[in-house]
């Protein structure tokens, strides 16, 4: 307390006033959570005529439950509504105003009048402080606009005049100044305001009242507290009795050391006691009526204001804003139900007007998110035609850009790129950075599918810089998520993990569980690509549980399929088969036919690996027929590839080759070169089995060249291993060693466990065939150290047995015995040297 009193005695005390102060009677303003709940109730009441009163109450309860579980932050709700509704959203925040001060407001005004309080900084919108200063008769300079902060900043150096009030987030009497959304907060405070804060941190001791410091959780640099640590005078932070400081606040306190203090108490009593030596006992503050009744009246006033606001913006805007929130809290089907009802409620002529087109595009977007691509594409195309007819070229380009996403999913990349380029040109012409970021994102996705990873990454990073400048953190997470997927495709696994981790952290903090699960799913794919199947499986299980809890059945089914594929690759196809059969039934129950195609393809692979080759062919043929009926060329090509592998396993080499060549033709027609390489590899394996080694080399080299040109380094590793196998079959042992060694070095760099082992095992066997027995045994030990699967050591034992037979047949019994002994040790599970 000594620091506080000393600063106040010098006129160098600053009070930072949070929302908790204005909740004290008789001001009785609601919390941020309360105002958000009032907004939701107002929106659901406004759409009740569309969906029924009972259903509207259910939706409000669902959203409220997420809010109360601290999984839907107020600033995220504000962000969604501000993006959808624009400036009209901020009018609802004017209910957070009062000119009825309480004892804390009045005590601060009296401290300022006595010359003890130099400044007040607040994030509150209300005008209770201004009213308190008027009642006390103390002068007060209020700054709430960027220009006012700019003017004040140079005057603060050496200032010793009247108290100044810095309203960092604006003032309720001017909605244009209000800062409430996540994007606004991420953009940061005006430059002039930051300059003022830096000066005040150096000159004043800060007293934090009614503020938990939650903003520091999202932005450790908020207010400049951390940056000013070395030069700041210090602070005292009041928490309620028994309440621990947030970790972010505790870190700031630790950095400030003896210049920071955490104190506990209740307001207004604590403030009266703490400043008792500076001021006489405060005059009584009359509170007309019971404080509980005052709080009830205040809440009713907020609810009434919110209802009036919802009435003013109308049922269409209310439905659009509420639909976005429903998707964010994991209720996409409810959002679609609401938008269909809103569209149906419009007169037929109005469905082709602005409101109708806006609802149509919003509905298409929600359907697209659930994979209902055919209906979504028809809606987008219809909307674009209506917008063209009205001369609204900008919004028509936006609708076509959304349609481009569907073309992209179908593999029609030329049409997709054309749509996205048109959207980018439109955004650039209108200087709309938000829309430009969307176009850049979509173009980056197309370049990734084309295997143009460097260009895709460049576009994603350009988009991320725009989003950071806009403060659009939700879409920043989307960009990180999709960039991570692209980097994984390019075998840049460490970089992929870095950006995907950023996406997960942002989405977790925002309470976007669905988005978090999607980013986790991409992290699992990175582990899968590296061959770390246990890590991938663990994440897939977590993702399945998240989607189950959210009731997102389509996404849960997809995640089950991913988990099953990991099980197959782990050598557990029998465990995967029932999972996939159940997932197919679940997908059909909710009419997810495209997902059923993929699940059948996965089931075919599982049956094949379980040795049920004929059953696998039946399932894969059914999958191919459905994909062909849906005109889903990418899914059909992937299914044909699996069918070709199965036919190859059945020694039906002619049919396998025909299928692989058809796969190449499909991907060539779609201009997706990156997807051609696996088919070429399989053609090479068929040729190799036939003994057509020159043809095999040609196929393997073509596949390797594609992967090398596109930067798919994992594919390069596998290509070198295949070329090494052919060289070995041709008797070119030194060439084989060179190829295996190159594969091993690259696999080590990429941290690919399966390929690291495979290359070492191949090197060891080849060295043995060269007659380098001692070097070969050491190489087998190196391969053993790289083993990650139970079957790996059995693989080595089989190779050692083969070499033992070779040396025995060539009259080298001692060397043969050494190889046999090593094989026996591996089978027995004994450690080297045992």
Q: Tell me the radius of gyration.
A: 33 Å
Point out poorly predicted stretches: none
Sum up the overall morphology in one term.
Answer: globular
Tell me about the biggest sheet? 7 strands, parallel
What is the end-to-end distance?
69 Å
Total of DSSP H or I helical runs spanning 4+ residues: 38
The oligomeric status of these chains comes to: single chain
Pairing-aware structural class of the strands and helices?
mainly alpha
How helical, in percent, are the residues?
A: 55-70%
Q: Mean pLDDT across all residues, rounded?
A: 89
What is the β-strand count?
7
Briefly, what CATH class of the domain at 2-29 and 98-279? Alpha Beta
CATH architecture of the domain at 2-29 and 98-279: 3-Layer(aba) Sandwich
Strand share of the residues?
Answer: under 5%
CATH superfamily of the domain at 2-29 and 98-279: TPP-binding domain
Pfam family, one: TPR_12
TPR repeats: 477-510, 677-710
Protein name: Photosystem I assembly protein Ycf3
Keywords: Repeat, TPR repeat
Mind sketching the topology for me?
Layout: H1 2-9, E1 13-17, H2 32-51, H3 53-68, H4 74-85, H5 103-113, E2 117-122, H6 128-136, E3 140-143, H7 146-152, E4 163-167, H8 182-187, H9 191-203, E5 205-209, H10 215-218, E6 235-239, H11 247-256, E7 260-264, H12 269-274, H13 291-328, H14 332-345, H15 354-369, H16 373-389, H17 393-409, H18 413-429, H19 433-449, H20 453-470, H21 473-489, H22 493-509, H23 513-530, H24 533-550, H25 553-569, H26 573-589, H27 593-609, H28 613-629, H29 633-649, H30 653-669, H31 676-690, H32 693-710, H33 713-729, H34 733-750, H35 753-769, H36 773-785, H37 790-809, H38 813-828
Parallel strand pairs: 1-2, 1-5, 2-4, 3-4, 5-6, 6-7
């Amino acid at each position: 307390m000594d620091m506080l009193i000393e600063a106040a005695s010098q006129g160098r005390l600053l009070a930072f006033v949070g929302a908790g102060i204005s909740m004290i009677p008789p001001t009785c303003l609601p919390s941020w959570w309360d105002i958000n709940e009032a907004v939701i109730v107002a929106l659901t009441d406004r759409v009740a005529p569309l969906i029924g009163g009972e259903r509207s109450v259910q939706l409000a309860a669902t959203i409220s439950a997420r809010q109360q579980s601290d999984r839907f932050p107020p600033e995220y709700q504000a962000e969604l509504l501000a993006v959808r509704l624009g400036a009209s959203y901020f009018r609802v925040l004017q209910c957070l105003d009062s000119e009825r001060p309480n004892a804390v407001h009045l005590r601060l005004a009296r401290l300022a009048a006595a010359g003890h309080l130099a400044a007040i900084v607040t994030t509150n919108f209300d005008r209770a402080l201004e009213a308190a200063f008027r009642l006390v008769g103390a002068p007060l300079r209020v700054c709430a606009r960027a220009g006012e902060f700019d003017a004040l900043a140079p005057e603060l150096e050496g200032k010793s005049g009247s108290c100044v009030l810095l309203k960092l987030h604006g003032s309720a009497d001017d909605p244009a100044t209000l800062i409430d959304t996540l994007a606004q907060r991420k953009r940061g405070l005006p430059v002039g305001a930051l300059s003022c804060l830096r000066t005040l941190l150096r000159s004043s001791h800060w007293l934090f009242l009614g503020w938990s410091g939650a903003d520091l959780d999202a932005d450790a640099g908020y207010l400049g507290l951390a940056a000013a640590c070395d030069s700041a005078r210090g602070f005292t932070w009041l928490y309620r009795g028994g309440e621990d400081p947030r970790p972010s606040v505790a870190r700031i306190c630790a950095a400030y050391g003896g210049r920071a203090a955490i104190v506990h108490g209740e307001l207004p009593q604590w403030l009266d006691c703490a400043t008792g030596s500076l001021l006489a006992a405060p005059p009584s503050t009359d509170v007309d009526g019971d404080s509980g009744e005052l709080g009830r009246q205040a809440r009713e006033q907020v609810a009434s204001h919110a209802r009036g606001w919802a009435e003013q913006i109308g049922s269409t805007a209310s439905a659009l804003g509420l639909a976005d929130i429903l998707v964010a809290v994991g209720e996409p089907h409810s959002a679609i139900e609401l938008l269909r009802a809103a569209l149906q409620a419009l007169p037929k002529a109005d469905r082709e007007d602005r409101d109708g087109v806006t609802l149509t595009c919003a509905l298409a977007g929600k359907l697209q998110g659930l994979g209902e691509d055919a209906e979504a594409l028809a809606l987008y195309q219809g909307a674009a035609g209506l917008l063209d007819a009205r001369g609204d070229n900008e919004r028509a380009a936006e609708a076509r850009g959304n349609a481009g996403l569907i073309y992209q999913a179908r593999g029609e990349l030329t049409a997709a790129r054309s749509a996205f380029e048109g959207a980018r040109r439109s955004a650039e012409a209108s200087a709309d950075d938000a829309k430009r970021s969307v176009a850049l994102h979509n173009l980056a996705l197309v370049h990734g599918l084309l295997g143009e990873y460097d260009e895709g990454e460049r576009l994603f990073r350009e988009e991320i810089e725009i989003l950071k400048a806009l403060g659009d953190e939700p879409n920043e997470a989307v960009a990180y998520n999709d960039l991570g997927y692209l980097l994984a495709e390019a075998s840049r696994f460490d970089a992929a993990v870095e950006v995907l981790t950023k996406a997960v952290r942002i989405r977790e903090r925002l309470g976007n569980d669905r988005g978090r699960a999607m980013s986790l799913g991409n992290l699992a794919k990175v582990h899968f690509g590296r061959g770390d199947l246990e890590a991938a499986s663990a994440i897939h299980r977590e993702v399945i549980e998240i989607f189950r809890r959210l009731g997102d059945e389509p996404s849960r089914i997809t995640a089950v399929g991913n988990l099953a594929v990991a099980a197959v690759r782990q050598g557990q196809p029998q465990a995967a088969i029932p999972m996939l059969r159940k997932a197919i039934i679940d997908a059909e129950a909710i009419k997810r036919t495209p997902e059923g195609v993929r699940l059948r393809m996965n089931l075919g692979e599982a049956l094949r690996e379980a040795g049920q080759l004929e059953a696998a062919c039946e399932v894969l043929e059914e999958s191919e027929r459905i994909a062909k009926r849906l005109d889903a060329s990418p899914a059909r090509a992937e299914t044909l590839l699996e069918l070709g592998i199965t036919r190859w396993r059945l020694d039906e080499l002619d049919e396998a080759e025909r299928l692989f060549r058809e796969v190449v033709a499909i991907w060539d027609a779609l201009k997706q070169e990156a997807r051609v390489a696996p088919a070429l590899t399989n053609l090479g394996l068929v040729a190799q089995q036939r003994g057509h080694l020159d043809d095999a080399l040609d196929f393997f080299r073509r596949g390797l060249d594609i992967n090398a040109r596109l930067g798919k380094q994992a594919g390069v590793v596998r290509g070198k291993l295949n070329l090494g196998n052919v060289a070995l079959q041709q008797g070119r042992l030194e060439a084989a060693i060179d190829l295996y060694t190159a594969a091993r070095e690259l696999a080590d760099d990429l941290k690919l466990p399966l390929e690291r082992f495979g290359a070492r095992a191949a090197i060891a066997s080849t060295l043995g065939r060269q007659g380098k027995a001692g070097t070969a045994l050491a190489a087998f030990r190196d391969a053993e150290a790289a083993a990650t699967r139970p079957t790996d050591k059995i693989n080595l034992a089989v190779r050692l047995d083969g070499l033992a037979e070779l040396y025995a047949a060539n009259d080298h019994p001692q060397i043969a015995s050494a190889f046999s002994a090593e094989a026996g040790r591996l089978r027995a599970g004994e450690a080297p040297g045992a």
